[in-house]
Every structure is written in C-alpha cells, then in structure tokens.
C-alpha cells in the first residue's frame, strides 16, 4: 500500500526543508587553516590627506575618507585571530591609539576608531614622512607586529636638496607595506579656517615651495641675487607646485627600498588585502566555519519551491494549454479544465 502523500512533490520538499533546518541547527562547524594578519595600521592625517582625488559612488572623497572606507572593508575580510593595531601620524611623530588586538572579539571598537579618523586630530601642520615612517617601524618592532604605513608621501616642508634623513634601522627587520595614497595627477589641497570650515584651497604663496636648509641645489649659482655667503639660494621665488598634491610614488618606493618594506598603491579593499597577505608575516591559524547558513539557505529554497514555484507552474500550465489550443479545440477544453 502506498501513501498518497508519497506521490506529492510538496511532501518531499517539506521533508527536505525540515532536514535542512535541522542540519543548520546541529551540524558541527568545519575547520580550515588560514594565515592570519598581525599588523599596525598607521595613517597619515596631515593636511594633504584632505585632497579629494578618490571617487566613491560617483562622488569625490578625500584620501583620508577613502582610507577609512578601505580599512573598514578590509577588516571584514580578515580571518579571526588576526590582530590589528591603529596609530596616527602627523609632523614626525606617531600616536598609538591601541596596540594589536584580536579583530573579531574587538571588531566594534576597531571599526569605531577607524571611522573617527579626522585631520583635526593632527597636533602640528608639518609632515616629515621619512621621520614618521622610521618611528612607525620602531614602534611596530616593539609591538612585534607588521606595519602598514598609509600616506601620500608629501613632505611638508619639502626635503632639502641633499635628501631626507638616513634610516639607521635594519632593512627588513619589520615586514609590511608602505601604502601610497592619492591620485597621480596634481590636485588642490583644501584649506580650513580656525573653526574647521573649508575656505578654499592653498595657493602658491601660502606653501613653502623649497627647503632652504642645508646645502643649496647645484643650479643656485645661476639664480638672480645669488651670493655664496648671504643668499646661497638666490632671491628668486621658485614654484615647485607644493601647494598641489599627488601621491609621491617614486619617493615612497625609495623609502620602501631603504627600509625593506613593500610598496602598493591604494585602490580598493581587495587589492590592499591581497598585498597585505603577500607581504605580511604568515601566522597559520585554524578557523571554524559554520555550515549552518548553507543548510538554512537550501531549506529556504525548498520552501520557495513549495509555496512559490509549484503554484506558479500550476497556474502557467492551463494558460499554456489555452494558448496552444487556439487551433485545437481539444487542447482548449483541457486548458479550461
């Protein structure tokens, strides 16, 4: 004897739904091995990071805002047991907000700290990129973590002709990335008043265009007003476009070579995460992955078949028969039934 319900597809679909939901509740999680990340993210918050040369959802955004977007997305994709620290850079100093902490257990406070990045937190207007990078490397070494140093690379005031400070650390002792932030074309730098309101852009005469510390450049003797003792740089005002900003990629690559770090340009979160995984110190960890969502999704699909797809098929079948029965009275009668 065969029960009538056994011939009904709805019975088997509902049974499959029950088994899928039961599996979602009791199935043990799967275990897989991944490489976690242990990194100190250090972010440049100086004035040039307000330059709007990135686009999100069709709207221009500043470099600092784009960093916040990319970091938030990157955190979501990091495996649990990764450890993340956050620090800010201005002038030549590094301000540590918090050392590396486990990302999943502390997800909310880490995201909150990143979302609160603001140029107003800067304690001085200067931007000594090399000095800040060297201090960040020393701090990451103390914290036993890798380093992700995010900056546009624009030194303010400009470096002297003789170059920046030498790196006295051991190249490669700290692994990680220098992340170049900004577009490749020159863009104006927004200017703000003492109350934090934007009042335009920096002009040529408002920004130091040339460093006059150290030795003068080789062409100084050809400048008007040159005097080896009293005016070794001449009296002409040069324009090196320091009031405009772009990512100083050659300079950042030079710093990366000096320090043993890798270099990447900031685009979107997947590219940053790929570069981080490629150059960070590997930390193999065992990560549990729940099977529940997959089983629950299959259960929802079976329910949709019972209450949506099967009724739709029953409704379409008579309509199809009526359409084909226009030239065949027998099919038309079957469709009406």
Helices, by number, come to: 8
Unreliable stretches: 330-336
CATH third-tier fold name of the domain at 30-207 and 242-289? Rossmann fold
Instruction: Give the SSE order as H and E letters.
Output: HEEEEHEEHHEEEEEEHEHEHH
The CATH class name of the domain at 30-207 and 242-289 reads: Alpha Beta
Considering DSSP H and I runs of 4 or more, what fraction of the residues is helical? 25-40%
Oligomer: single chain
Query: CA-to-CA gap between the ends?
Result: 30 Å
CATH superfamily of the domain at 30-207 and 242-289: von Willebrand factor, type A domain
- How much β-strand is present in the residues? 15-25%
Largest sheet: 6 strands, mixed
- The overall pLDDT, averaged over residues, is 86
Please tell me about this protein's structure:
The chain has 337 residues and is an alpha/beta fold. It has a domain at 30-207 and 242-289: Rossmann fold. It is 35% helix and 21% strand. It contains 8 helices and 14 strands. The strands form 5 sheets. A 6-stranded mixed β-sheet has the order 6-5-2-7-8-13, with helices on both faces. A two-stranded antiparallel ribbon has the order 1-14. Strands 3-4 form a two-stranded antiparallel sheet. Strand 5 (83-90) and strand 6 (93-102) form a beta hairpin. Helix 1 (9-26) runs antiparallel to helix 7. The protein is elongated and about 110 Å long. The protein starts with 8 loop residues before the first helix and ends with a helix. Residues 330-336 have low confidence and may be disordered.
């Amino acid at each position: 004897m065969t029960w009538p319900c056994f011939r009904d597809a709805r019975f088997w679909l509902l049974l499959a739904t029950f088994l899928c939901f039961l599996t979602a509740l009791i199935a043990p999680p799967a275990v897989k091995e991944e490489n976690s990340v242990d990194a100190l993210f250090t972010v440049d918050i100086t004035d040039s990071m307000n330059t709007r040369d990135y686009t999100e959802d069709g709207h221009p955004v500043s470099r600092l805002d784009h960093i916040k977007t990319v970091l938030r997305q990157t955190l979501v994709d990091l495996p649990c047991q990764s450890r993340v620290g956050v620090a800010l850079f201005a002038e030549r100093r590094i301000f540590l907000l918090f050392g590396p902490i486990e990302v999943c257990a502390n997800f909310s406070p880490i995201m909150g700290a990143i979302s609160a990045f603001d140029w107003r937190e800067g304690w001085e207007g200067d931007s000594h990129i090399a000095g800040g990078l060297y201090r960040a490397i020393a701090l990451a070494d103390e914290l036993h973590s890798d380093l992700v140093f995010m900056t546009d690379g624009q030194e303010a005031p400009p470096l002297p002709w003789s170059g920046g400070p030498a790196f006295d650390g051991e190249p490669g002792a700290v692994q990680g990335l220098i992340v170049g932030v900004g577009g490749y074309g020159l863009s104006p730098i927004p200017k703000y008043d003492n109350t934090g309101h934007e009042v335009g852009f920096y002009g040529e005469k408002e920004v130091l265009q040339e460093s006059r510390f150290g030795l003068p450049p080789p062409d100084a003797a050809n400048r008007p007003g040159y005097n080896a003792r009293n005016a070794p740089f001449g009296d002409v005002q040069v324009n090196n476009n320091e009031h405009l900003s772009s990512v100083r990629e050659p300079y950042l690559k030079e710093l990366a070579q000096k320090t043993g770090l890798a270099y990447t340009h900031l685009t979107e979160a997947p590219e940053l995460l790929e570069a981080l995984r490629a150059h960070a110190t590997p930390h193999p960890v065992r990560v549990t992955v729940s099977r529940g969502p997959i089983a629950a999704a299959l259960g929802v699909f079976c329910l949709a078949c019972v209450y949506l797809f099967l009724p739709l098929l029953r409704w379409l079948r008579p309509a199809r028969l009526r359409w084909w029965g226009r030239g065949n009275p027998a099919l038309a009668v079957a469709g009406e039934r």
